[in-house]
Task: inverse folding
């Protein structure tokens, strides 16, 4: 039974409230994260308890708000069940442990992570910028087994969990804690593939990606964009390449998910030529 239908059958919402009922939630391990409209905030406990009662796999329910700050922490509020912020999540045969309040993680990117992992070759040296708790790095390290995987992440707690997750999954990845701008200036190595999974930054970090790229490097660049503006993102990449005295070829534009009407989370794959 779909969530909205389940909640409607509780008969605890007026006809006017029913149109604001959530239709989905994120399940991370045994924790459900659900966005609840301000219009029905007074009924959030009813929604949470209905989820617990009808889903044996759910032990805890939190409401979720917007992400904020450089580390993309998420505003969450405990609603029902067992109060626990640390979760263990399984994806593509990999285990991830992290704190949902202090570390950014999206289960909705699991398909994207697997898709990139299947493109990676064993001879490659791969760099993941804004690596978080290392989901991209660990999935591709475990599946593709490339020559080298390096992560750069600003958050100290995310790095702590990244190291723990590397041990849990028995993969050898290099984890560097610090600012991407500063670290990329010091890196002497050139990478075969660079993953940039953090979209909509005030600064696009393409300059830094070009610093550590070479002929043949494939870069996966992410953004939130109106569908009509995808060409503008391509132009931004080309202009940044020209400034860095590089030439690029756009390989693919992938719509990962819709985040609002006519606005999507996209990935643009391009190669240095």
Result:
């Amino acid at each position: 039974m779909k969530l909205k239908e389940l909640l409607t059958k509780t008969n605890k919402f007026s006809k006017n409230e029913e149109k604001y009922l959530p239709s989905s939630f994120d399940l991370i391990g045994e924790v459900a994260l659900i966005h609840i409209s301000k219009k029905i905030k007074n009924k959030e406990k009813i929604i949470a308890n209905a989820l617990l009662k009808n889903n044996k796999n759910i032990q805890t329910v939190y409401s979720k708000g917007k992400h904020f700050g450089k580390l993309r922490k998420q505003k969450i509020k405990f609603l029902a069940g067992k109060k626990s912020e640390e979760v263990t999540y399984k994806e593509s045969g990999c285990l991830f442990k992290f704190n949902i309040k202090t570390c950014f993680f999206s289960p909705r990117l699991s398909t994207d992570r697997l898709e990139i992992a299947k493109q990676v070759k064993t001879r490659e040296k791969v760099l993941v910028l804004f690596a978080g708790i290392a989901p991209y790095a660990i999935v591709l390290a475990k599946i593709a087994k490339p020559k080298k995987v390096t992560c750069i992440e600003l958050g100290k707690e995310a790095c702590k969990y990244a190291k723990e997750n590397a041990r849990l999954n028995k993969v050898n990845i290099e984890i560097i804690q610090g600012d991407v701008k500063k670290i990329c200036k010091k890196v002497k190595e050139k990478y075969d593939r660079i993953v940039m999974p953090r979209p909509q930054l005030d600064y696009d970090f393409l300059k830094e990606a070009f610093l550590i790229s070479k002929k043949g490097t494939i870069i996966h660049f992410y953004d939130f964009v109106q569908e009509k503006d995808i060409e503008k993102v391509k132009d931004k990449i080309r202009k940044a390449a020209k400034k860095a005295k590089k030439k690029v070829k756009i390989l693919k534009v992938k719509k990962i998910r819709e985040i609002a009407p006519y606005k999507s989370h996209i990935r643009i794959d391009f190669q240095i030529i």
